[in-house]
Write a structure and sequence with these properties.
alpha/beta, globular, GMP Synthetase, Chain A, domain 3, 2 domains, binds 5'-O-[hydroxy(phenylacetyl)phosphoryl]adenosine
């Protein structure tokens, strides 16, 4: 495969994006009733769009627009030109439908192949693909991308963790992909069997579909003996492979911006924020055919940056803080679950399997209960007799330590309950929801 576009000079990249945007706007004006109406409403003539700089003149597209046009209203090709249909996982309501032409499926495979390459995977390696196969884009997306790169794929899908571990032991894949919370579940199963990281064939883990932070990376890397990297994407844009971390750089992900042009907008004013500031990620699909989207409001919070030591020229994004609608307001303080998760990384002995329960009074969130696990090995090293008064005091103090760290870093008071490792419900494949029903 040719990866040279990832290293394109910035001026050439802008030129390419400009050409693609101009073509796209013409394409939509010809083929999309939805965008034709939007252009008319806003009084936009397609001639006004001459370069990528003009993008902010274009309308923003929201998930609600997809819902209002359910199922195929935003498609710009006849049904007989489609090759595939997927849906979003419907975590926030009715699923939204997306269509792909053959060219779109090729593009999808191309960006996933690029992503796997950035994750450390090479042709000839074997992928243990534990993303769900089905209407979710994870399974098939990684599958086609891996084949395009020249890998072999075990299409195991999510769930049945004992079988997953049996097959990893028997088939010895170098690469695994799944959600980060499911990678922890798999690591737990290896731990239960007394198998250490150096006995596991895996070298690279390609993890995404939900927010995750450094503490999860550290656990997965140590327990599975892998480089764990972050893959981001959403079905409305294409699926996984919108952005990807490099396994030697980590810390943030390259956006494959020759196809997906990113902007960061203020959640309230919907105007661009200064470069580097946090806001909602908005993406324009520059090259898709069956369902191109202009300035799609992902609802995911992040910021863009350039990394001085980056290998590639494309812009990077920070890990997603959370979806705007996952934000909790605890006594007036805005909190994302990932910020609590990040606070855990500052307390030795925490296992990042956790749940948050908002406590409400008069429809306001006044407190947050946190349930989290403590590492077995860490607890054993204290040499405390199980359930002795010293043991109880140690666990209580440990919980207070976590509360203090959350207070210091996030600014909210929480009640933390500590559980033994492997005792809270865990991810059984797919995305995990860390926020439990309000009390
Ligand atoms: O989750 C696509 C995907 C599959 C991405 C496999 C990565 C790996 P949807 O089901 O449409 O698509 O959900 C998209 O999931 O808007 C984010 O809120 C969240 N998300 C996806 N990847 C990440 C990530 C797939 N790496 C929604 N970090 C997105 C944080 C993520 N959140």
């Amino acid at each position: 495969m040719d990866f040279s576009v990832e290293y394109l000079e910035l001026t050439q990249l802008r030129q390419l994006q400009s050409e693609r945007l101009v073509n796209l706007v013409g394409y939509l004006a010809d083929r999309s009733d939805f965008y034709k109406n939007k252009f008319n409403e806003l009084g936009i003539s397609t001639q006004e769009i001459r370069s990528i700089e003009d993008i902010s003149k274009l309308p923003i597209t929201y998930k609600q627009d997809l819902r209002n046009n359910y199922p195929f209203g935003l498609f710009t090709v006849p049904k007989n030109e489609l090759q595939r249909i997927h849906c979003s996982s419907g975590t926030t309501g009715r699923p939204t439908v997306v269509g792909y032409t053959k060219e779109d499926v090729d593009l999808f495979s191309e960006v996933v192949a690029r992503s796997l390459n950035a994750a450390g995977a090479k042709p000839g390696m074997q992928l243990h693909n534990a993303y769900g196969y089905g209407i979710f884009t994870g399974g098939l997306g990684l599958h086609y991308g891996a084949e395009k790169l020249g890998m072999s794929v075990l299409p195991i899908s999510g769930g049945m963790t004992t079988r997953q571990v049996d097959l990893i032991l028997d088939f010895k894949p170098e690469v695994i992909c799944c959600s980060p919370s499911y990678a922890l579940t798999i690591a737990d199963e290896f731990g239960k069997r007394g198998i250490s990281a150096d006995e596991i064939s895996l070298k690279y883990a390609v993890l995404g579909s939900e927010p995750w932070t450094e503490i999860i990376r550290q656990h997965i890397e140590e327990r599975l003996g892998v480089h764990a990297t972050n893959i981001y994407g959403l079905s409305e844009i294409i699926g996984p492979g919108v952005s990807m971390e490099d396994f030697e750089e980590k810390g943030g992900s390259y956006i494959w911006e020759d196809h997906f042009y990113p902007e960061i907008l203020d959640p309230e004013t919907k105007q661009p924020v200064p470069f580097g500031e946090e806001g909602v990620l908005v993406i324009t699909t520059l090259t898709k055919k069956a369902m191109p989207l202009l300035r799609y409001w992902t609802n995911d919070i992040t910021s863009l940056y350039y990394d001085e030591n980056a290998k590639r020229t494309m812009v990077k994004m920070k890990p997603i803080l959370g979806r705007a609608d996952d934000m909790l307001i605890v006594r007036g303080v805005n909190v994302y679950p990932s910020q609590i998760e990040d606070a855990f990384s500052h307390v030795k002995g925490v296992v990042p399997n956790y749940y948050l329960t908002p406590i409400e009074k008069e429809q306001m969130c006044v407190a947050l209960d946190v349930d989290v696990e403590i590492e077995d090995g860490f607890l054993k090293a204290q040499h405390l007799e199980l359930n002795s008064p010293e043991y109880t005091t140690f666990i209580e103090n440990f919980g207070h330590g976590v509360e203090a760290e959350i207070k210091r870093r996030v600014g909210i008071t929480t009640k933390v309950k500590i559980h033994g490792q492997d005792t809270l419900p865990k991810c059984e494949g797919g995305k995990i929801n860390r926020i439990l029903k309000k009390k």
